[in-house]
Amino acid sequence: GRRRAHVIAACLYTSCRQEKSQHMLIDFSDALQINVYTLGTCFLKFRSRFAAHLSLDEKANQVAMTALRLVARMKRDWIVAGRRPAGICAAALLIASRAHGFERQHHDVTKVLRVCGLTVMNRVKEFESTPSAGLTLDEFHKNDIEGE
Predict the structure, then answer these.
(1) How many CB atoms lie within 10 A of CB 107?
(2) Confidence of residue 83 (pLDDT cuts 50, 70, 90)
């Protein structure tokens, strides 16, 4: 598989692009001492695999941003402690895609991120017990949390 630092940098770069930040891929490459072409390849694979397999069309960026906010909420609620990032990301993608009106099942996300379906469902159940789970999508995006 890919190195964890490469995937994290690709995710951060995706977020920066969506937020129209001035950060470039070479900035992440320099900071992490990773070859920019290696990082670029990881970014392209991540982006195409995510969009193609979940068929999110023009809402892919919105779903990704909601998923990133979900990960921040999960971190605040200690759901990420001791958990592998792939399971957290898969649960966040599943919840975000459902919140945006896509009818996705856990197996749709597990195929993309290659994690166990039970892991995804456990993370979703853990998130359901948090106060954020009861919010509408608009409320979720309006409510600011510390560290997000």
Answers:
(1) 11
(2) confident
The answer to whether the beta carbons of residues 65 and 15 sit under 8 Å apart is: yes
What is the reported pLDDT for 45? Answer: 67
Do 80 and 74 meet the contact criterion of CB atoms below 8 Å apart?
Answer: yes
Share of the chain above pLDDT 70, in %: 87
pTM: 0.67
- Per DSSP, the residues of the chain read ---HHHHHHHHHHHHHHHTT-S--HHHHHHHHT--HHHHHHHHHHHHHHHHHHHT-GGGHHHHHHHHHHHHHHHHHTTSSTT--HHHHHHHHHHHHHHHTT----HHHHHHHHT--HHHHHHHHHHHHTSGGGGS-HHHHHHS--TT-
Q: Give the separation between CA 65 and CA 125, rounded to whole angstroms.
A: 21
Mean pLDDT of the chain: 79
pLDDT score, position 62 = 78
CA neighbor of 38 nearest in space, from 67, 10, 11, 73: 10
